[in-house]
Design goal:
Layout lengths: L1 H23 L6 H30 L4 H11 L2 H18 L8 H4 L32 H8 L9 H7 L18 H21 L5 H17 L28 E3 L4 E3 L2 H8 L2 H12 L13 H27 L1 H15 L3 H20 L8 H8 L18 H6 L5 E4 L5 E4 L1 H6 L4 H9 L18 H24 L2 E3 L5 E3 H9 L4
Antiparallel strand pairs: 1-2, 3-4, 5-6
Helix pairs in contact: 1-2, 8-12, 9-12
Length: 511
């Protein structure tokens, strides 16, 4: 019945809206919880679109079935229609006795898990280990494909992260004609597809149709203006698909594979059997750019096809640059994460991976994001730290070798700071310019530009600091007194000088 389908769709839409409202009010405790919530909301929104389209089709009633059904209910015998529908329902359940009934009231609600029960999350198999639930990029495959492109320089993964969106020399040292190879086209399209996929996985609630339409409009405008980076017109107004600009002076023999001119035929013949020429010919053939003088692409149709390929490659490059700007934060975090992992041992990497898996398991056991009881939370947050090591940024004790390397087990007490004990030489040297130490010196009467360092650096005793301050004050006083007692003399030209210097110059007959 269309009316029953119409009522069921209306109910489904209301349940979907309530499910979205319940999830929006949640406060995710981790990145994975937030991603699961956003992907669930995105799935609900997609179902709302589908159900709304079905509802609109019912209301349009192109075939007139809904109008006939309404007319039958309003004019016919109601009991006859009721018993007919009842018989159809009984006949359906006789044929399908184990058919499950969908309960819309519970379909979109959070289900509380029983003890020991686990549930599979939406993002379980969505990200690789290197992506860490969407926090970092994983461009290792694209980096390998980049290194396999003929003519590029071998760079490290960190350098690739800095310049993967730069497609012009010197960062990408290949010619424009070499970009038309199938290998380069596959590389740049795979890079574009990965960035788009990563953006869709990490931001499922974004309006991607609007974002990509804006990118396409910007590219079309730049392409028509011939202002796309690396794909503008050459100096002589020809593109890379029109063939080589020159073939030497025209007086000698031109080698298209090596792009070199030979004036002596014998030298050219010996050059054809050389390793350099053979390698250059194989490279051009593998790139799909082999040049045969007997069959050069001179037809307009071939040039148009090549121009379309140029446009496709330039479009991929433009999308990569635009997506890299959107993912600027994840890109910088990836670089920091790669540098951090390079300084870790294998054991530390494994510990970090185990901690990540433990966090995922905790999120799966408590998908609602509600905090557990105080006793259970205290038991989970208790960290085994018998050596009383300082805690790192993740709330866990730092490695013992790092503790010994920085000398954090050495105590440095400071009497001026109220007998405060600083752990490690670095913290001790840093505290001389901090507010606690400077305030302690001011309480002792020590003030001035040298209070936070200089002469009072490495001084932690009160008596030592007071004695040094008294000595400094006495020297300043003696200096001021001595300067005041000096008699100033003036010569005939108006030059002012101390009396001693004046007498010496006078004895020498200079004045």
């Amino acid at each position: 019945m269309l009316l029953e389908d119409q009522r069921l769709i209306h109910e489904d839409l209301e349940r979907l809206e309530q499910g979205i409202s319940d999830r929006v009010t949640e406060d995710p405790r981790s990145i994975k919880d937030r991603l699961n919530r956003d992907h669930e909301i995105a799935g609900f929104l997609k179902r709302i679109e589908e159900q709304s389209q079905r509802l609109l089709d019912i209301y349009k009633d192109v075939e007139g079935s809904r109008a006939k059904e309404v007319q039958t209910l309003s004019t016919g015998d109601p009991f006859e229609g009721f018993y007919k529908q009842l018989e159809e329902t009984k006949d359906f359940h006789r044929r399908y006795p184990n058919e499950p009934v969908e309960n819309l009231e519970r379909a979109y609600k959070r289900r509380h898990l029983q003890e020991g029960e686990t549930v599979s999350a939406v993002t379980d198999n969505m990200f690789t280990g290197e992506e860490s639930n969407g926090r970092f990029l994983d461009l290792t495959t694209q980096h390998e494909d980049y290194l396999n492109i003929p003519g590029v320089k071998r760079i490290t993964y960190i350098q690739y992260l800095d310049h993967f969106d730069n497609f012009v020399p010197p960062h990408l040292p290949i010619k424009r004609s070499q970009k038309l190879s199938d290998r380069y086209f596959k590389y740049v399209s795979d890079l574009d597809n990965y960035l788009e996929s990563f953006l869709r996985r990490t931001n499922p609630l974004e309006d991607f149709d609007k974002i990509f339409s804006t990118i396409e409009d910007d590219f079309d405008k730049a392409w028509n203006d011939k202002s796309v980076s690396g794909w503008g017109e050459d100096l002589n107004g020809t593109s890379a698909v029109d063939g080589p600009k020159t073939e030497g002076t025209g007086s000698g023999i031109w080698c298209p594979d090596c792009e070199k001119e030979f004036s002596n035929p014998n030298v050219y013949k010996s050059h054809l059997t050389g390793k350099k020429h053979i390698k250059a010919a194989q490279t051009k053939q593998s790139n799909g750019t082999a040049d045969t003088s007997a069959a050069q692409p001179t037809s307009r149709q071939t040039n148009n096809l090549a121009r379309l390929k140029e446009r496709a490659i330039a479009s991929h490059e433009h999308r990569v640059r635009s997506l890299a700007k959107i993912l600027m934060n994840e890109r910088s975090n990836t670089r920091v994460n790669v540098e951090r992992k390079q300084g870790m041992t294998e054991r530390e990497r494994q510990q970090e991976l185990d901690a990540l898996f433990a966090e995922d398991d905790a999120a799966m056991n408590n998908p609602s994001g509600r905090p557990e009881s105080d006793e259970e939370s205290d038991g989970e947050e208790k960290i085994y730290n018998p050596l009383k090591l300082p805690l790192a940024w993740d709330g866990k004790p730092i490695p013992f070798w790092l503790y010994k390397l920085h000398g954090l087990g050495v105590e440095f007490p400071c009497e001026i700071c109220g007998n405060f004990v600083y752990m490690g030489r670095r913290a001790f040297e840093k505290h001389f310019s901090e507010a606690r130490h400077i305030y302690g010196l001011k309480c002792l009467g020590v003030s001035g530009p040298g209070a936070g360092g200089g002469l009072f650096r490495e001084i932690t005793g009160i008596e030592e600091a007071v004695g040094l301050w008294e000595k400094i004050k006495k020297e300043r006083k003696d200096k001021d007194t001595k300067e005041e007692s000096i008699v100033q003399m003036e010569d005939g030209e108006g030059n002012v000088m101390p009396e001693r210097i004046y007498r010496d110059l006078q004895k020498q007959g200079i004045l």
